[in-house]
Amino acid sequence: MNKLNRICVTSLLTNYRCLQQIRNSYNYPITFEKVVFPPDGKFQLPAMPPEPVYDEALGEVKKKLNRRMIEARGYEPIHTELIHKQFGLAAISGGLITGADFAYLQEHVNKLLKKNQFAVWRVDAPWLPRTRRLRGTKRGGGKGPIHHFETPVRAGRIILEVGGYILEAEARAILMTCLQRFPFPIEFVSDELLQRRRDVEVKIKEQNENKFDWDTMIKYNMQGCQYWLSPYDVIWKCKYK
């Protein structure tokens, strides 16, 4: 075999390998047979009332409450999964959502949704009152008047979902710009991402051979940790505040 033939054979093998790599890395087209649309037929986010609706006939009136920060502490035990198994926003740590935040999300998401795409809320409307004193008023005399209402969320709580005939890249383009709006950290999640996290947690729990964990430390009071641990640290093993 002369030099020219060797060069031709080498180039053909190289092209074949490149085509084989491209073929192996090709992804199957994404289909939407398992998409579950909202049963009420509403595909866009409804407006969230900035404050609760009171029925005067039943004697309901605005009432001041304490700060109730326990509503935003710890981990959300229920609303941590995506109902429609597609994409959404989840809280990384606890925080409070105001009516202005809801209005921004509604306007931004509804503007970018297409015909066969939908978005749904996964949190309640603002219900926790927040008081604020007017500027120039004297100190003392108890709480000031109610200024606005907020919605408390815990870590892991799903805030909203986006679904329908939508790809992950499209969902990220819609939701990633909303992350900077919140005063507490939130993240973009998908059903696949949440499933991978659950699998990792189960794997670590089953294969972990290190018995030095928070349960052991608290049980045997290692280095006097029971003195400086708060009740919340004991409940949530120093993972949440």
From TrEMBL:
Q: Which GO terms describe its molecular function?
A: rRNA binding; structural constituent of ribosome
Q: Name one Pfam family in it.
A: Ribosomal_L16
- InterPro entries, per database record: Ribosomal_uL16 (IPR047873), Ribosomal_uL16_bact-type (IPR000114), Ribosomal_uL16_sf (IPR036920)
Gene Ontology biological-process annotations? mitochondrial translation
User: Which of UniProt's keywords are assigned here?
Assistant: Ribonucleoprotein, Ribosomal protein
* Gene Ontology CC: mitochondrial large ribosomal subunit
User: Which protein family is it in?
Assistant: Belongs to the universal ribosomal protein uL16 family.
Protein known as: Large ribosomal subunit protein uL16m
